[in-house]
Design goal:
Layout: E1 2-8, H1 16-27, H2 38-50, E2 65-72, E3 76-82, H3 87-99, E4 103-106, E5 111-113
Antiparallel strand pairs: 1-3, 1-4, 2-3, 4-5
């Protein structure tokens, strides 16, 4: 069994429904034809430098990925995580999403976690 999380590069005024709508478009194969959002690129680079999704390390025992490589698009990264994924991986995903102002969508229940408001 696995579970899915998706980080989305949305504007600061995007409501949770906008994130879910964007994800539905992705599921239909509708992806924007534009350059990758720098926040998404930074997220992917930081996450996969610790937890590779390609090459021999992506399939070693203990990898957090139930499916690799990750689904990467211009405005989002979808991660299918193994059910035994260590909490530190989830904490890293949440921290990076917050630092990079990315919304985090939990596909199991549709909850959207916006990045923390910085003062």
């Amino acid at each position: 069994m696995s579970f899915d999380l998706v980080v989305w590069a949305m504007d600061q005024t995007a409501a949770p429904d906008a994130v879910r709508d964007a994800n539905e478009r992705c599921a239909r194969g509708d992806h924007p034809q534009r350059p990758a959002d720098p926040r998404v690129v930074a997220f992917y680079d930081a996450l996969t430098s610790r937890y590779p999704d390609r090459g021999p390390r992506a399939t070693e025992p203990g990898t957090p990925w139930a499916n690799a490589p990750l689904h990467a698009a211009a405005d989002h990264i979808q991660m299918r995580l193994d059910e035994s994924c260590p909490d530190v991986v989830l904490e890293t995903i949440e921290r990076l999403a917050g630092e990079l102002n990315l919304d985090l969508l939990d596909l199991q229940d549709g909850t959207v976690y916006p990045p923390p408001i910085r003062s």
